[in-house]
Amino acid sequence: MQQQRNYGIDLLRMFSMLLVVILHTEGHGGVLEAAQGHSVYWAYLPEAFAYCAVNCYALISGYVGVASRWRPANLINLWLQVAFYSVGFTALWGMLMPGSVGITDLLHALMPVTYQYVDYWYFTAYFGLFFLIPLLNHLVRTMPRRQLRTMLVVLVLVFSVFPTITRHDRFYLANGYSVWWLAILYLIGGYIRQYKAWEKIRASKALGMYVGFSLLSYALRMGRNILTRRVEWYAKIGDRFFGAQSDWLNYISPTVLLAAVGLLLLFRNLRLPAWSVRLIRLASPLAFGVYLIHNHPLVSDALMENRFASYASLPGPLLVLAVIGTAVVIYLVCTAVDAVRSLLFRLLRVRQFADWCEKALRKVFLCCSERIFS
Prior knowledge:
Elements: H1 7-27, H2 31-34, H3 39-50, H4 53-65, H5 72-96, H6 103-110, H7 112-115, H8 121-130, H9 133-142, H10 145-166, H11 179-194, H12 203-230, H13 232-242, H14 254-268, H15 274-283, H16 287-294, H17 297-303, H18 316-347, H19 350-373
Helix pairs in contact: 1-3, 1-4, 1-14, 1-15, 1-16, 1-18, 3-12, 3-18, 4-11, 4-14, 5-6, 5-19, 8-11, 9-11, 10-11, 12-13, 12-14, 16-18
């Protein structure tokens, strides 16, 4: 099922990855941990606006996937990209530190889902989601709109609103770090695409939705922190009775979810000039490489871990600008690196190899099916 490509969605993919880098700049970089006093409020401001990044990525998967053909070659190609960096950085570390890396380490790096040698949690969750996509697409394409909308509302109430209000991840969604949360987001993104939901929403309203719910997440998080520190009974209820595992700045938070939906609605209807479309066409496929490069443990530990803690001592506005500027630089450097990987993959015809693997797998599957059910 081929549809005209929406480059606004591709631009959202890039913007979401920039938001991911902002999160890691503040988290891995040590800004949030080092922030004290009023700096805490400034440090969490970009965090609040960036927290919907992962939800955006999953919404995009549903928005694009529901109108696309399910192809194992896509997963194989993605696996090879992940393995390229997982094995490459591990091997590089072995050359820099002789004796620190063995054959077993390289084999584990080659199979990031099986052994979790490298913590690419999103790829692991997406790998599981991939095998649910045919079922999810069938639900979105065949279920009556009203029934699907009701089901999505119930899913959000049960798996987002309730855990956030009770401050406990009661249904073991790993606070959003799981295939099940990605599946819910996939359905929401698919619903928006299938039924052109809120198609005529103005850009100003969609932007206001993103900004408003991001600020609400921020206010609720800061307010909860103040109450927990200063009101003894609130701290007891939150920490002892509920367990206090979930927060408003959390992937499963309804305000974070709605901020992500606002961004999807905003970018979906963007009208882009021709020159930007050419740039997006080149840069968008490299966005996931930014995640794979800067979030690899060896890269993160060597170049990011607590490297930006000094930002916490800057005046508030400068702190925010420093975090965003650093994230932009990291994004651009990683994009340049992944451009080299992309060129190498084209020269080695990796995509064609993935297509060949898919054809071989289909033949094996059909042969086994015929023997089992004959």
